Amino acid sequence: MAHRVDIKETGEQFWVEPQETLLQAAQRQGVRIYSDCEFGGCGTCRIQVTRGKVCYEDDCLPMSIADEEHEQGHAAACQARLDADIEISLAAHRDELPDTQQVRAQVHSVERACQGIWRLTLQLPQDVHVQFRPGQYLNILFEDGRARSFSMANADAAHGRIELHVREVEGGRFTQVCLPGLKAGDELLLEMPLGVFYWRERDWRPMVMVATGTGIAPIKAILESLLDKDDCPPVSLYWGMNRPEDLYLAKEIESWADRLCEFRFVPVLSHADESWQGARGYVQQQVCQDEPDLSEHAIYLCGSPVMIEQARGLFKEHGANEQFMYADAFNFQSDSRSAEPSLA
């Protein structure tokens, strides 16, 4: 039998069928709950259950919800199921975001950023005005109905340009077949903007931004939007890569030193040789070493689900408040012909 969900803020109701997740039911009935990865890793679809409880398949909590958080009523809507009526709060999902639209863009340039990573620049039509929040992403749509998602690496669409950072994936249909063959003038169908990874100005807390791989793309967009702003909070950026030659944005990031408030950039390498004089290991561990008390910080995580899951746990042990922790997990979509990242 179906179960009723009451929304605390509005008094609205919707119904969840036995075979559905709470998120699927909300989407089917036009209730907005923002989501990204939809496998329980990023935390974007977190809601507060204010009456009753949700359950999960095989009683297994998703990565973004700890045991104590489940007991406190936090839930991942993309995995949550119901065996009774509940009431939820959607206060965290009430921000107004730009409307999503489809637009045809032309390839402006395709170039190597470093080994295994491409920079793809797209040109929007002159008569199309697209708004987005720095940190959001877009979908590239294909004729067979598939989509590939990539974070936008620029703060705005100045001159109609959109920059994407694309990591090659072994066997990836887009990254290893389509992308190398793209040339200036080729058209791509985009759906944009999407996602809820963006700077929460209302927080105004010192920011710790943590990225692995091309997870630097949306963080680059956010930080570019804060350049030379008087109200920019203190910023620490940690970027995890394998080797020094992988740090394709290092010089650009270092040039922001005098344009952001108390800016600190810490590249962290996991496979550097003896010549590397900087931080080694994993970004989440380096953050805790540098910042033993994270209770006053806003934290932005972008990259692999493993990093994000570990970072959430570690950071909470160091005082981080889940209310001020935002994440964009790069899921990998695969089928018989492809295995590509769903973000950046």
Radius of gyration: 20 Å
Number of domains: 3
The helix/strand class is: alpha/beta
Tell me the total number of β-strands: 19
List segments where confidence is low: pLDDT < 50 over at least 5 consecutive residues.
332-344
Average pLDDT, to the nearest integer? 90
Which overall shape is indicated by the principal axes computed on the Cα atoms? globular
Sheet with most strands: strand arrangement: 9-8-11-6-7-10
Note the beta-strand portion. Answer: 25-35%
Per CATH, the superfamily of the largest domain is Nucleotide-binding domain of ferredoxin-NADP reductase (FNR) module
The sequence of SSEs as H and E is EEHEHEEEEEEEHEEHEHEEHEHEEE
Main β-sheet description? 6 strands, antiparallel
The CATH class of the largest domain is identified as Alpha Beta
Distance between the terminal alpha carbons, to the nearest Å?
A: 40 Å
**Helix segment tally:** 7
CATH topology of the largest domain: Rossmann fold
The appropriate CATH architecture of the largest domain is 3-Layer(aba) Sandwich
InterPro entries: 2Fe-2S_ferredoxin-like_sf, 2Fe-2S_ferredoxin-type, 2Fe2S_fd_BS, Beta-grasp_dom_sf, Cbr1-like_FAD-bd_dom, FAD-bd_FR_type, Flavoprot_Pyr_Nucl_cyt_Rdtase, FNR_nucleotide-bd
Domain 2Fe-2S ferredoxin-type: 3-94
Cofactor: [2Fe-2S] cluster; FAD
Domain FAD-binding FR-type: 100-200
